[in-house]
Each structure stands twice: as structure tokens, then as C-alpha cells.
Amino acid sequence: VKTAGGNSLAYDRCIVAPGISFKSNIEGYDDAAMQAMPHAWKAGEQTVLLRKQLEAMPDGGVVMIAAPPNPFRCPPGPYERACQIAMYLQAKKPKSKLMIVDAKDKFSKKGLFTQAFERYFKDTIEWVPGNATGGGVVRVDAASGTLYTGDGKEHKPTVANVIPAQQAGAIAIKAGLTNDSGWCPVEHKTFESSIHKGIHVIGDAAIAKPLPKSGYAANSEAKVVAAAVVDLVNGREPGEPAWVNTCYSIVAPDDGISVAMVYNLVDGKVAKVKGSGGLTSLDSTAGDRAREVDYAYSWFNNITHDAFGG
Fold first, then answer.
1. CA atoms of 242 and 262, how far apart (whole Å)
2. Burial (CB count <10 Å: 0-12, 13-18, 19+), residue 214
3. What letter would DSSP give residue 26?
4. Which 8-state DSSP code applies to residue 58?
5. Is 66 exposed, middle or buried (0-12, 13-18, 19+ CB in 10 A)?
6. 26-37: string of b/e by CB count within 10 Å (b at 16+)?
7. Sign of CA dihedral 146, 131, 162, 157
8. Which of 208, 210, 172, 176 is CA-nearest to residue 191?
9. CA distances for 262 relative to 37, 97, 225, 272, 277, angstroms
10. Could you write out the DSSP letters of every residue in 119-187?
């Protein structure tokens, strides 16, 4: 491992979590365009920039979210974000609208999200599938603030949140850990790279379907890999792995939805454990949905403490 300071470190086993980088699937969406039309898909400056743009937007403005094709970090993320922004608009800028221009026709928890759009944001959120636009946003002109969809139409929203297609982080590509898909193939039992032995890839960058590219899945992968590496460096065969994932989305102040699943290893591949998971019911009660909001905050506090301590 070579560091930015010029040091070189030897390893017996190396665990990497490269995260994501962006593919050039949207013409004109370069580094300069990202400052005008933030993706906010890597937390920090971009998140703050998007927030400031929303705060500065006049009442009656239009927010457009360009949702990416699969696979990408946090599958329900664009739709969670739409609900969060719509809550803000209804409270502060009630004449404003939000449009989701999607590159695809289906997305995570679609039934529950579209129910929320209809129930709470009927006059605020519009979701447009990829088949209605020729594949969503395909080109941008940051100078004029224009987005072009695959059907040749032009859009000039007040705030544009453009989320490009994704692949493994740049360091994974540079290290030769990716295949033609742009992601990192791994042996599922230990998440050891199928390209470079001795390197284990966890998190969004790894090809681990049906495990989603979520924070909770990454946390679970890290624990399984840590146990496997302890076995490997001590000359033992790693034990049988199991993984978990839960994803909460707050779609209104007192309305939360979730999906959960347990995974095991079947014939060397990650597989869903039948009957282990669940999805919030479309006809769940208001009380159930309010509890899901409490669960979401509890999950966040616990996962943050688990990952970072404190």
C-alpha cells in the first residue's frame, strides 16, 4: 500500500472499502457542472451546496432530481431525498414543485414510495419513468441550467440535482480490482477479490448481489470479512457467513417505511434467507408508520455508534 505521503506498507491481507465514483453517462456533466448542478451523492461540500440552492430557491421554483440507472449507492436514496425536499417545500415554499426524472422504470420500495407521493405530495412530487423520457437525463448544459432527456426535451429547473451512473471508487479502478462492469468481483464467502488475491473488497464497490449497496450491508460485510481475515491469517478455514440489511426511509414527518433481509451463502454465492425479511405493508396503520420513524432514528444512532464509536 502506497500512501499520499510516499510511504509503502506491506500487508498479509488488505481490506478496502473504495466507495463509488461516477460514470460519464450524462454528456456535459463534468466537475464544473457538478458545482452548478450538485449530485450530493458524496456527503460534504456537495450536500451543503444542494441545501444552499434549495434555501435560495424562490417559492414557485422547480426542483429536478435526475435519478441514475442501476446499480448505484443507496437504491432508495433519490426517492427518500425527494420526500425530504418535498417536506421542506411544503413547509417553506408551498408553490414549488419537484420532478424526479428517472433513468429506469422500477426502483427500491417503489410501491411504498409512490403511495407516499400520492398520499402526501400529490401536488408537489412528479415521478417520470425512463420509458417516458428515453432513459432520463442524457445531457446537461450547466451554463444555461438546461437538462436534456433522451426524448429530446429540454428542462430548466430552478435547482437541478443530477445523480450520474456509478461504478467502484477511483482507487479500485487504479488498483485493477474492477472488471468490465466497473465494480469489483469478489468471492462471496470472504469478499476476497477474484482478481487480486489477498485483497478483500467491502461496501458499495463490491459485486455482492442480492446484498444491496447500502450502509447497513457494508457494516455487515465488514464484520464478516474481519472474522474471515482472523481465520485466514491463523491458518483456519473461515466459518459460514451470514449478512443482514435493513433500510429505513422517512417519507413524511410521522411516516416511515422499511425493508429488511437476512442473507446466507448458498453454493458459494450470497442468497436471501427465505422468510427472514420483510417490507412495510401498504396497508399498515398510521401508528405502525410512526413507530417506523422512531425505529429509523434508533437504527441511525446505533449504526453510527457501532461504526464510529463515541
1. 7
2. buried
3. S
4. P
5. buried
6. bebbeeebbebb
7. positive
8. 208
9. 37, 38, 16, 6, 6
10. HH-TTTEEEE-GGGTTSSEEEEETTTTEEEETTS-EE--SEEEE---EEE-HHHHHTT---TTSSEEEE
| Contact by Cβ (8 Å): 15, 200 | yes
Output the tens digit of pLDDT for each of the chain's 310 residues: 999 999 999 999 999 999 999 999 999 999 999 999 999 999 999 999 999 999 999 999 999 999 999 999 999 999 999 999 999 999 999 999 999 999 999 999 999 999 999 999 999 999 999 999 999 999 999 999 999 999 999 999 999 999 999 999 999 999 999 999 999 999 999 999 999 999 999 999 999 999 999 999 999 999 999 999 999 999 999 999 999 999 999 999 999 999 999 999 999 999 999 999 999 999 999 999 999 999 999 999 999 999 998 6
Helices (H), the chain: 31-36, 45-56, 77-92, 110-120, 170-174, 215-233, 286-308
Q: How far apart, in whole angstroms, are the C-alpha atoms of residue 204 and residue 169?
A: 9
Length of the chain: 310
